[in-house]
Amino acid sequence: MEGGLRLENRVRTDVGEVAYGVFGEGSPVVLVHGTPSRSHIWRGVVSRLAERHAVYVYDLPGFGKSERHEGQDISIAAQGRVLAGLVERWGLKEPAVAGHDIGGGIVLRAHLLEGTSFRKISLLDAVVLTPWGTPALRHVREHLGAYRTMPTEVFEAYVAARLEGTTSRKMDREVSEAYLSQWRGPEGQAAYLRKDEALIERDTAEVERLLGDVRAPVLVVWGGEDAWLHPSQAEALVRKIPGAELRFVAGAGHFVMEDAPGRVAEILAGFFAEIPPGANP
């Protein structure tokens, strides 16, 4: 979807307004991004899925065009409650869902702890199994005061360097700016550090203990060259979820949809396809 996604709708949640868009018609699919990205990461996938589905895409609270403010609870636990509330607010009955990075943990919290039913679940380079914090994240959390007082231009260079490690090929400047722009200036710096401070492994550890209770069909998709979450985590995750399947995307990094949008769109379209009654699966 050239030029990115236009999130023209807003809905209020317990932690602030959420910007979202709906694309296409058909059985519903909800796409949940991770960090430090935004809904923009799904743009190369949405057009394919929208051929047969009503695709719901939103910016997590604290990210992109959604509301962000001091004191906002944007933990994975809070985001799981937000997702559960959005599915109810949108009137969706057992939508299919895909979660990338912390979006995977958010999806599983909504399903296992908030009671949201999903028809199918795809987890892409997902933050689920502990430990998952990168050395950079741990350093930020241990030295928040220093990062808060860091000159904005230095902080922006740090975030830009982090983004460079998310793909196996160099991002175009326009694409990189789409992610970096939300973290620019004093407000963006504060928002970035708020979300890093909120990322705690306890929120996914609570889910990890319940993975055997997942009953929806699950497909795990992973970049074969993920430098943030080693591909061995994908194999371990599949072993913990009954009946889960695994697809590696060769040559792709952590932002698997950036490196291989067409391949990811093809995989998800096949997985989410409805099988007509009486048809051979």
Automatic annotation (TrEMBL):
Family matches, as PANTHER family: HYDROLASE ALPHA/BETA FOLD FAMILY (PTHR43194), PIMELOYL-[ACYL-CARRIER PROTEIN] METHYL ESTER ESTERASE (PTHR43194:SF5)
Coiled-coil annotated residue ranges, if any: none
Statement: the UniProt record of this protein carries the keyword Hydrolase: yes
InterPro entries: AB_hydrolase_1 (IPR000073), AB_hydrolase_fold (IPR029058), Carboxylesterase_BioH (IPR050228)
GO molecular function terms noted in the UniProt entry: hydrolase activity
Protein's name in the database: Alpha/beta fold hydrolase
One Pfam family cited in the UniProt record for this chain: Abhydrolase_6
Origin: domain of life: Bacteria
Keyword vocabulary terms for this entry: Hydrolase
The UniProt record lists the keyword Hydrolase: yes
Organism listed in the record: Rubrobacter tropicus
Every AB hydrolase-1 domain range: 29-266
